[in-house]
């Protein structure tokens, strides 16, 4: 069985593992105060053009999401999110567990727009009874989204502008950031995120690391005592250098960008194979996640050799499924899949 | 100016105030452990046919809502609510502040259905990844709803049945309970609520008391240590007898039912006056809240003599507004308003 | 039986009740935005010499405590309190329920000192690992304390100075404020509290009102959106004018000061009676609460005619008990008690 | 410089790293549902004699502590802990952030006793006003404690008995479990913990793993939906097999027991060296942490070649410091240190 079900089913890129092996005999200070975290922050910052950014290394995506949100909001403030946003649907109410409402906006292809944000912010601003409703204070978007789509630079600039106009923090969940930066039509860079957001993260878990997310805090207001929030939320790894080390391995020589771009190319091969076969996309995605609508018969045929994710029933004879490539996908796996698609 | 803007703009029914005056020289034990709370519980229980119910007196509706929900749910559990539900839109995220997601269902006329509840419960039951999503564990409905509509006995029985099938608690916000029981077409009684729900409350604040809500806990699982939740949430009035006393005054001789029924009759006069004038209802309501769509010109005319609540803009020339009667509405106020409606 | 067990066992001062009766036919805007709350704030402000203060009316003490603390602290910040402080021992963990640690200091006669506060603040300031410990950010004191003792102006000035030096908010729980201001040796005034604290409250529940606490927010940082915190925590009474009205009745003509001073005088009579009898005070108190150490035999004798509060066992033959006077105490009750003490 | 400052300054035991390298090419299901977690649970269970236990793998100690406590307690319930307990002093109020009071008991040598627990439980049981205080519902102890001391089997049996008598959950923080099991005078086994507690964990981070704690849930009441708590609290590692794999490597062939026992033997050599030199222990510890009282001059001398942890000032010329051995300590490091101690 070949796994296309997600992008976190393999260990780490060999260079990451090598780094762990190479340093295993060394000893370091704990809790992220070590030379590797310093180096990793420095090498990431080269891409940001943002010397004042703070960079912290957390273990996973849900943890990064709720720790950042808890650090930014007061109890009566809410976070705006696409209704399809990860924090709204797949984190077991972690944000609410921190006391905050996730205020949802109907997504189009997994994305929300500056206009939708403006409307919500305006509703609060003009409310006669603001103390009876939650105050939207942060916008959460995923890039790429949960459906593999990406924001254009123009869309991000518009969203950022409306956030700044209304005093909302902009937070970008970059669990799959590499695949977004390497997307076929992508025109946004890490520098753009540092310029346009208040806080975002660069995902490692799904992009070549064993685990780890690099949280970049641009807005000084959100930098204060962030390490206290990390510790309080169990998000400060005792052997923090393990995180810095992995990000060093990924960002030195731009390995991160290279391996995720390759994964997107593989995904485009899958996309083309489906398209040529006349199998429709559920949502057109330029990144490593491909959502297609299969006849159930086709689904059963492919399920003999491949693991992929069932998303939902479309009708009695069709289903939406997801195929995911990743940094660990091999060319022969793509060859096999695309041939089997053609044979359907 | 005559106020029809809400049902909490006057003090208390004279009999309630008399009771306070009559007992002011007496002394009582604190925190709801006194003879008046006992008596009030006893007189309310006569209407319930439910000797094992626990009755607690809280100060207000938001407080009752979040205290009950906090006492019932574990951190990963959510409460299902109409998207128009008070806990979702007008309580400043109080439920989320207690750590719980309000999982919304699209309301029809302010109401949700057994079928909608079943669908959500079934989604959780059949999920492959239940630990990634919140568990719906309670259903919150308002009776009457925020739009003045009421559930029929049949609808409540269906909702109750699906809740019991899936192990969900059913919680009824009865902030306006009196107006629901006294609604023109109402076929539900307090006994029905005791039979069909796990916990509900009988609103005093909007129904003749200075303040106060009688929370009736039917399900023994929810009775355990409820007073601890009250104290922890600031919901245990030091001079608790003030609450018991008011409910005694309201429930002895069925004053509660009588004054709210009268308020509904007044509301029906308003409804008829609008209907005869050809002014459409926004939602057909059988209770004390009447939502109508006025031309802006009509709105301005009525605003000269009456205070009513602007709800929202319908289009450039029309608005939805709310007229509310209450136990304190006077016949001459209704006469004046209905005449002015006819003159529009 | 005559009640000396607490200071919240009677309704309200007759003038408060009269105010409620007089205005019962009137109608007002809801949620504390009405003419009586405005007037009450104005009349209280006359005593503060602090025009920029914000005044809000909440229903009870526990509610006031946790709402203020929740509004002031970030999740990793803690509140310093005497270990005997009400928030630490008698509010069912309400502060922790809001997510904050109550960091205790050993009390001397119910009080804490500037030196103790400095020590804790200094521990945090000089910590090598501040992110592993909570940050003390607020100091909570009660005036009078839970043992009836009071802070001198000098003590308050010292505490205030150390709080300002270390950036800690100073919060005074004034549930029994009247009895503190009226204490025999008292040299502090409301103006002192406005000058020296960031936020404090003036208790109504125990000082002549049916219920209600006037929260005075001096520090502009703590004023922002406080009404949102009130609503979220169920601390915004629908008929808010009931609170303003009561405080108007209490503060017009200085009734508040007069009735609490009288209660303290009565307490001093009890104190003298015990002292003359050779019955030792558990703690010397200049306010309405008197803690004495009775022989169990004496306790049983007094218990025949009086209700008082058992505090704790001292040894096999002695117990600490509390006698409380209040605004509702009558001269004949004091006469009876002091005579019975002499007869012991 | 040789590090004796803590037990988490090196990567992992070589066999753990080998396991990661060996499996890096494989692919697995996510979130702890994989063959390695299954195997690890099975191999650990062999030591427990408790087939019905549930075993979950979390990333770190603070995370394990608050996730377990949050899963066990209702909002008004508190956890009893030594005042020196890790959850009370070094986790940034993580437990309070989940809404629960840490109710402290004065520790003796880092430990608390059954008698102390009984006293607190009895206070609640016999309280006249239980709803005004938090309900102790869980006991948290560390084994070994934060001062390196250990509980005897008899002490644990007494604590367990009083917990069961009063319906308290017993939770053991075993972040350093290996060093406790391998302590010189230890008479407790993993089987004892499974027999006597409701939930405990076996620390990996400090005992040979890169990271990871194996939480053993014995009480079925605490097993329900624990994975939901994990996900909600960011404690469910995406690549969960990394945790199972490490515990397999540690528990196959009893490596875990062997390497921690060796570390304790090294610690005993340090202890003897100090004792022979007449340098007093701050607390007598039979495990890998040694706390001694050095003259400041001695401290400075040793600080030239060794990193160790300053704990606190004892007086103007003496300090308490900690020397920690671990699975990664080398014989030549011990030789060097003990010689340098002798030379002091």
Describe this structure in words.
- The structure is a homotetramer of 344-residue chains.
- Chain A has 344 residues and is α/β, with parallel strands linked by helices.
- The first copy, chain A, contains 15 helices and 13 strands.
- In chain A, helix 2 (35-45) packs parallel to helix 12.
- Chain A is globular.
- The relative contact order of chain A is 0.18.
- The A-C interface holds A 31, 70-71, 74-76, 98-99, 129-132, 135, 225, 227-232, 236 and C 31, 70-71, 74-76, 98-99, 129-132, 135, 225, 227-232, 236.
User: CATH first level of the largest domain in chain A: which class?
Assistant: Alpha Beta
CATH architecture of the largest domain in chain A: 3-Layer(aba) Sandwich
Per DSSP, what share of the residues of chain A sits in E-state strands of 2 or more residues?
15-25%
Tell me how many strands of chain A there are: 13
Cα-atom Rg of chain A, whole angstroms?
20 Å
Q: Quaternary status of these chains?
A: homotetramer
Helical amount among residues of chain A, as a percent range? 40-55%
Task: Report the CATH topology name of the largest domain in chain A.
Answer: Aspartate Aminotransferase, domain 2
**Structural class from helices and strands of chain A?**
alpha/beta
The total domain count of chain A is: 2
Chain pair sharing the greatest interface: A-D, 48 and 48 residues
Give the SSE string of chain A: EHHEHEHHEHEHEHHEEHHHHEEHEEEH
List the uncertain runs of chain A.
none
């Amino acid at each position: 069985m070949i796994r296309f079900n997600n992008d976190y089913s393999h260990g780490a890129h060999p260079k990451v593992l090598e780094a762990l092996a190479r340093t295993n005999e060394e000893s370091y200070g704990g809790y992220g105060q070590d030379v590797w975290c310093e180096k990793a922050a420095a090498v990431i910052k080269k891409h940001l053009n943002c010397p004042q950014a703070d960079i912290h290394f957390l273990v996973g995506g849900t943890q990064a999401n709720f720790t950042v949100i808890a650090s930014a909001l007061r109890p009566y403030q809410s976070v705006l999110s696409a209704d399809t946003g990860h924090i709204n649907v797949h984190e077991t109410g972690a944000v609410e567990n921190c006391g905050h409402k996730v205020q949802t906006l109907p997504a189009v292809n997994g994305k929300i727009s500056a206009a939708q944000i403006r409307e919500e912010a305006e509703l609060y601003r003009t409310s006669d009874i603001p103390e009876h409703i939650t105050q939207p204070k942060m916008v959460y978007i995923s890039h790429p989204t949960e459906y593999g789509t990406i924001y254009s630079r123009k869309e991000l600039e518009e969203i950022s502008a409306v956030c700044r106009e209304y005093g909302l923090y902009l937070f970008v969940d970059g669990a799959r950031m590499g695949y977004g930066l390497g997307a076929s039509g992508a025109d946004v860079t890490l520098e753009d995120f540092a310029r346009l957001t208040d806080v975002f993260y660069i995902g490692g878990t799904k992009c070549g690391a064993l685990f780890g997310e690099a949280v970049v805090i641009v807005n000084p207001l959100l930098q204060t005592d962030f390490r206290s929030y990390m510790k309080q939320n169990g998000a400060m790894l005792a052997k923090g250098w393990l995180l810095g080390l992995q990000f060093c391995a990924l960002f030195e020589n731009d390995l991160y960008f290279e391996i995720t771009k390759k994964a997107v190319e593989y995904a485009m091969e899958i996309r083309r194979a489906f398209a040529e076969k006349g199998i429709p996309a559920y949502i057109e995605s330029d990144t490593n996640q491909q959502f297609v609508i299969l006849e159930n018969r086709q689904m059963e045929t492919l399920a003999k050799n491949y693991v992929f994710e069932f998303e939902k029933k479309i009708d009695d004879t069709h289903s939406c499924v997801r195929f995911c490539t990743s940094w660990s996908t091999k060319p022969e796996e793509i060859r096999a899949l695309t041939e089997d698609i053609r044979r359907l």
